[in-house]
Amino acid sequence: MGVAAEGAVESVVVVHNVAKRHNVGTLARSAAAFGVSEVVVVGRRDFNSFGSHGSTSHLRFRHLSSLPLARRYLKEERDYDICGVEIVDGAMPVTDHPFRKSTAFLLGNEGTGLSERECEICDFFVYIPQYGGGTASLNVTVAASIVLHHFGVWAGFPERVREGNKFVVAEKPSKQARRNYCAESIEAIVEERKHRKENARMDIFEENGSNESQVTSALEAMFVG
Amino acid sequence: MGVAAEGAVESVVVVHNVAKRHNVGTLARSAAAFGVSEVVVVGRRDFNSFGSHGSTSHLRFRHLSSLPLARRYLKEERDYDICGVEIVDGAMPVTDHPFRKSTAFLLGNEGTGLSERECEICDFFVYIPQYGGGTASLNVTVAASIVLHHFGVWAGFPERVREGNKFVVAEKPSKQARRNYCAESIEAIVEERKHRKENARMDIFEENGSNESQVTSALEAMFVG
C-alpha cells in the first residue's frame, strides 16, 4: 500500500455511449467512495443516475464527444494511463495491482464488453479473477467497483473518516464545476464542437418519467467538458 | 494467497428478510463468480432475481425461517464463522483478510444496514475502506461483491478457466437440490416448521408482474432448507 507518491496519483472513470441499463448512479456512488477524481462521459451524455445516493454532486463530470478526443485529453493533457476493464489476452489480474501512475479506467457496456474501438485507446487491461463456473462475467458496476477499490488500495489513498456505521459525507460543493474546469487546447475545442454537433441527435433522455429527466438536466449542468 | 487448506474452506452468503430493492440477482451473479457454496435466505424467501444472468441455477439455496436457526445451522452443523458486512466499532478492513476458516457473510438491507438482531448472530465484522467524501456507504451488492472477492483471494480458490473474453460457464446442474440436501437435526426441523408457519403470512411475492412470480416459483423449487 501507499506505493504511489502522496497526492500525486488520481483515478478517473471513462464511460462511453452509456446504455440505459448501465446504471451510472451506482457506479458514481462507488467512484465517490473510492476517491475517483473525475467521470469522463464519452459520446452520449445522458444517463440514469438512479442509485447514486447524491454522490454525483460530489463528482466532477467531463463530456467528450469521441474516443480519440478522450484519449487525447487523458494522454496528452493529463498524462494518464488508460486501463480497459476487460478479459482480453494479456489482461492482468487486478489483484496484482499492475498500476504505474494516474489511471483512467474504461468500462464496457453490460453484455458486450469493450468494443474494438474502445480497446484501441487502452494502454493495458485488467480483469477480475473468478472462482466459480456459474457466470461468464460480473455485473459491470460490480467489476468497476472492484477495480476502483484496488486502485485506491495500490495508491494508498487516505481512508475517509467514519462516524457511527457510515463514512462522513463531505459538504455539498457549491458550483465547483467552473473552478474545476480544465482549459483545453483550441484545436481540441474546435474538434470537440464539431463532434458534439454531429452527436447532438444521439442526446436522448431517459424515458422513465419526468423526475429522471430533471436528474439528467441537473447532471447536464455539472459537466465541465 | 492460498492461506487456507485446499478445498477445506467455503464461503456462504446469508440474506435476511430481503427487501424488494435489494437486488439478489446481481448478488447471486457475484456469488457464483467468487465461488460461494450456498446462499442462505432467512425469513422472507421471495426475492427478485433480475440481474442473475442465469447464475441462480448454479447456486445452492437454503431457506431458514429465523436468525437463531440460521446461526445454529451455520455454527453447529457447519462450524462456520459468521461475518457481518457492516461499519461497526471493531470492524476490520476487508483488505486485511481477517478470515480463519469457512465463513458465512451476513449482509444488511440497503439503507439501514445490519439490525441489532442481525449483528447479534455475527462472530466478527468487516468493512470496506473508503477514500472519498461523496457517499456515506456503498451499494450493498457492490459491498458484498468486494468482500466475497477478497475471501476468494484469501482462500486461494483456483481461478476459473477463461475462453475469449468470458469465463467458461459450467454445465447447468440438473436438479442437484436434493442431492445437496444437508440433513438437519430433528429438533431443528421441528423448530423450523414452527417458525415457518408463523412466518407464512410474510411470504409475499414480488408485485412487478407475472414473469417475476414465475421466476420466484422456479427459485422456490431450488431451496433445500
3D architecture notes:
By secondary structure, chain A is of the alpha/beta class. Chain A has a single domain (11-220), classed as SPOUT methyltransferase, trefoil knot domain (Alpha/beta knot, 3-Layer(aba) Sandwich). Chain A is 30% helix and 16% strand. The first copy, chain A, is built from six helices and nine strands; from the N terminus they run E-H-E-E-H-E-E-E-H-E-H-E-E-H-H. The first copy, chain A, has helices at 24-33, 67-77, 116-120, 140-155, 186-199, 210-220, and strands spanning 11-16, 38-42, 60-64, 81-85, 92-93, 103-107, 124-127, 162-163, 166-167. In chain A, strands 3-2-1-6-4-7-5 form a seven-stranded parallel β-sheet, sandwiched between helices. Chain A has a two-stranded antiparallel ribbon with strand order 8-9. In chain A, helix 1 (24-33) packs parallel to helix 4 (140-155). Residues 175-186 and 198-218 of chain A have low confidence and may be disordered. Chains A, B: InterPro entries: Alpha/beta_knot_MTases, rRNA_Methyltransferase, SpoU_MeTrfase, tRNA_m1G_MTases_N. Chains A, B: Pfam families: SpoU_methylase (PF00588). Chains A, B: Residues 12-149 form the tRNA/rRNA methyltransferase SpoU type domain. Chains A, B: One of its GO terms (molecular function) is RNA binding. Chains A, B: This is tRNA/rRNA methyltransferase SpoU type domain-containing protein.
